[in-house]
Amino acid sequence: MTEDKKIECCDITEVHEDIVNHVRSKLPEESLLYDLAELFKVFGDSTRVRILVTLFESELCVCDIAEVLGMSQSAISHQLRVLKQGKLVKNRREGKSVFYSLADDHIRTIFQQGFDHIQE
After folding, report:
1. How confident is the model at residue 3 (pLDDT cuts 50, 70, 90)?
2. 3-state DSSP call for residue 101?
């Protein structure tokens, strides 16, 4: 293994009980960590990310999103279902059209933090 890929480890085994106990007391419940991991899985698909970024600009119907992204309405609908289950988008019906928008401003914050991080 090359030096830059090697993970640095302690030379001895010494558990710092006070620090370990403090950190352990601050850990969220396992169910919350699971939900957080599921949220990040939703962000793990580039099509879903593209849909979310599109919705930053405007509320759009499936037809509009498909046109903007050059994809089929079926493919967009499938990904919107996942995004809705993840509570990242919401929708409203207007006549025969269904319009999608971001569920809340947290999504913008998550993306801005992500963009800031990858551009460091």
Report:
1. low
2. strand
The DSSP result for 45-99, as a single string, is -HHHHHHHHHHHH--EEHHHHHHHHT--HHHHHHHHHHHHHTTSEEEEEETTEEE
pLDDT in tens, 28-62: 999 999 999 999 999 999 999 999 999 999 999 99
Domains of the chain: 17-118 (1.10.10.10)
Confidence at residue 6, expressed as pLDDT on a 0 to 100 scale:
85
| Chain centre distance of CA 40 | 4
The pTM (predicted TM-score) of the whole model is 0.82
Place of tokens 């558990």: 15
With beta carbons less than 8 A apart as the criterion, state whether 86 and 104 touch.
no
